[in-house]
From TrEMBL:
Pfam families, A to Z: PhdYeFM_antitox
Function of the protein: Antitoxin component of a type II toxin-antitoxin (TA) system.
Domain of life: Bacteria
Family (UniProt): Belongs to the phD/YefM antitoxin family.
InterPro entries linked: Antitoxin_Phd/YefM (IPR006442), phD/YefM_antitoxin (IPR051405), YefM-like_sf (IPR036165)
Record protein name field: Antitoxin
Length: 95
């Protein structure tokens, strides 16, 4: 993030929206908008936002896998048969 380029006032953003949109598409960086000198909003293009969401989902998946592996190492597991029986009982599934 380039502070001189990526932080600006909301009023300037309103006056020069097309310039900011072009900048965000080119740099793939969000723009921090200030109101009365205080950072209040972050604006980014939809593709960059989707990329951010994809990264978060990936990191959450990796974290969950790491936790699962740690649980296995610590013996915090249940046999598949026991799990299946619990789920059948919990959800009233016959069979």
């Amino acid at each position: 993030m380039d502070i001189s380029r990526d932080i600006d006032s909301l009023s300037n953003f309103k006056r020069n929206t097309s310039k900011f949109l072009e900048q965000m598409k080119e740099t793939r960086e969000p723009v921090v908008l200030t109101i009365n000198g205080k950072a209040e909003l972050v604006v980014q293009d939809a593709q960059a936002y989707q990329s951010l969401l994809d990264r978060i989902e990936y990191l959450e998946t990796v974290k969950a896998i790491e936790q699962g592996l740690q649980d296995v190492e610590e013996g915090k597991t249940v046999a598949l048969e026991e799990f299946e029986a619990r789920m059948r009982q919990k959800h009233g599934i016959q069979g």
